[in-house]
Amino acid sequence: MKAIFETGGKQYYVQEGDILYIEKIDGEPESTVVFDKVLMVDGQAGTPYVKGAKVEAKIVKHDKGKKIVVFKYKQKKKYRRTQGHRQPYTKVEISKVSAK
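^ thats the sequence. predicted structure below, dont judge the formating
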């Protein structure tokens, strides 16, 4: 079964067994999380969500992404600022996709 669900302001097209890197969510590693904002399951679209459909996933780990350097600069004004950023994410494995 394939599905499109929404979490963290983004939409993901998944099937059972897929591994995703999503915006950080609460939960301990090895625990199960359920996504109920399912937009489509096997071609059946919702308005906006499919009633009774859900995607179950297992949290594999929490981590941070690669460092991104943010450099601000204004010419001729001696203004330079350097800042780094590492976006936190959660790695999940899709275990079950179900629809009523």
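Residues 2-98 form one domain.
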